[in-house]
Specification:
142 residues, alpha/beta, four-stranded mixed beta sheet, 5 helices, 4 strands, 49% helix, 17% strand
Length: 142
């Protein structure tokens, strides 16, 4: 992360502790141990270009998504045990990969399962927009 400015690196460091709390909530909800795979340097590069006002707060941006992800996964699995079982089975790598930035802009965010990981997909022009929706499309991909 040497190309990431110091103020942004500090923001990321501070956010990692909060993100760990959200990951703990996800792990408790799912009854498994998942990991977060975040390319902070890559995300910084995308945000610096697409949404420069957020460039210094990359860590905060990840926290916004992970907070809502933890809440939305909890709501999802509380629908029925079958939902929890399907999610745990499909996300066999027990990993959340954040973020895949795409050029498409017909949605705010969505998730996919790739190589056994839950991938958070965000259009470049919609980074940090409507983060509350993250993983609300989960039922349709299971």
């Amino acid at each position: 992360m040497s190309k990431v400015p110091l103020v942004t690196r500090k923001n990321i460091k501070d956010a990692e502790a909060t993100n760990a709390e959200y990951l703990a909530k996800i792990n408790k909800t799912l009854g498994t141990e998942w990991t977060l795979d975040v390319d902070y340097a890559g995300l910084y590069a995308e945000i610096a270009t697409a949404k420069p006002d957020y460039a210094e707060t990359v860590g905060d941006v990840t926290t916004w998504y992970f907070e809502r992800l933890a809440d939305n996964l909890e709501s999802f699995v509380n629908k029925d045990d079958m939902y929890k079982e399907a999610l745990v089975e499909e996300v066999s790598a027990n990993k959340i990969k954040a973020f895949e930035i795409v050029d498409e802009d017909s949605f705010y965010n969505k998730v996919a399962i790739k190589d056994g990981a839950l991938v958070l997909i965000v259009p470049r022009n919609n980074i940090a927009t409507n983060v509350d929706n993250i993983a609300q499309d989960l039922e349709s991909i299971l």
